[in-house]
Records
---
Amino acid sequence: MKEEATVPAAESYVYMRDLRQQAKVPENGILSQTLHGDERSKVILFGFAAGQELSAHTAPYPATLLFLKGDAKLKLGAEEQEATEGTFVYMPPYMEHGIKAHNEVVMLLTMIKGVPPVAA
């Protein structure tokens, strides 16, 4: 049974029983699905095919990453770290970061936009 996002009429919350079931991992490439977005936050579910890479970049807001499936190499500032199922990362604004999937990866990104951006 395929699980769909449930958004109540008042749009006060989003409920997904199992994000791993909701995630779509393409045969090749990276697929993103916005699960929630407003002026305070944005939540995006990513599916990475094996070997795919999101090159190093920055964002003006703090963000978190939660790895739900797979293994990846992370660039966090000047360091490299390994990510596996259950890995959690908090990144301050403007931290350079990138991801390379070793195999199929499902990752949840949350951008915290409700705080004023910090000047670079």
---
Amino acid sequence: MAMSVRLLGAIALVSLGIAGCGPTAARPTEKTEQQDGVRLVPLDIRTAKGTVHYKVEVAITPQEQSRGLMYRTSLPDHGGMIFPMTPPRPASFWMKNTYIPLDMIFIRPDGTIARIAANTIPENLEPVDSGEPVSAVLEIIGGGAAANGIAKGDKVSWKTPA
């Protein structure tokens, strides 16, 4: 059973095409923070109503990217996880072993939001696709995008840890 779970995880990672890291834009004066051993970086989304500030985890290693937000039972309102992708490419995520609804925000290489998949269904195995090549995917609490006025075309920037 453990072998099949690891094999399934490896297949999922390959099928998602998630590897490497690269920021869209950085705020050089901001520093990476640690919270419970997790790297947190500032992430801003410029919306029509103003800038929304987040502190997010960065999934850099293949293991971090494969696990994502699986097994979490909560997520802060202005927290989440970003999955940087270099080079940009079409992305596809699923909700296996993810117990909370998430908004998946697909980010183009220029930092603009290409698509928002709102309130994805916990533990659903149906792929959620980016619809176009992206340089990152941001996962936040389900309903967070609508609650904060985040929309397609808004600009996302973050600092990737050194």
